[in-house]
Amino acid sequence: MADLMTPNAVTVQRGTQFREIARLLDEYDITAVAVVDDDGRPVGVVSEADLLRRQLSKAGAATAGAIMTSPAVVARPEWSVVEAARTMEERRVKRLPVVDDADRLIGVISRSDLVQLFLRRDRAIQEEILEEVLTRTLGVAPSAVTVDVTDGTVTLTGALERKSLVAIAVRLCESVDGVIEVIDRLTFDRDDAVRDGRAPDGTTVRPAPEPG
């Protein structure tokens, strides 16, 4: 996720005034700013909603420290996109300050960043599965399997030559970066679990008689 976040995030300190916060949100076209201490560690976040609540109440000091939501909900640069999206959904926030191992602010990731990434990644996932997983790794003809990707969910439809390839294909697709779920609708032409005339339970398997 480090390559997706915006570095040099816009920040304020506890004493920053209401009007200055509003000006920053408008100037940078953002919905929230992180409030940091003297060491650059996020201590809270001031969002548009926080400003609106303060404006309606007209109560108390109009500084970042007084109106911020604290503690700040933060992300780590090593997080996956899925982790960031899940945190935003669970905590109902649109932006996450990203902090390093010392909890110092190093960037910010927004919901719009994730949306754009998912839109781009669907096509990238599809291409990687078709070219790398199916064609190059498994030697499957591109026409044999249809790969549909929607918001990270992969649907595999078609027929593979052997039954054992189905589980392998699904497992390899699940390991592709950005894949959230794999829906298996694959069939197979031959059950290669039957070998040397015997089924896996040791019973003898006889070929079906020739017609006529």
From TrEMBL:
Residues 5-63, 68-125 form the CBS domain. The keyword Protein transport does not apply. PROSITE patterns: BON, CBS. Signal peptide: none annotated. Residues 122-190 form the BON domain. The keyword DNA-binding does not apply. Keywords: CBS domain. InterPro entries: BON_dom, CBS_dom, CBS_dom_sf, Diverse_CBS-Domain, UCP036990_CBS_BON. This is CBS domain-containing protein.
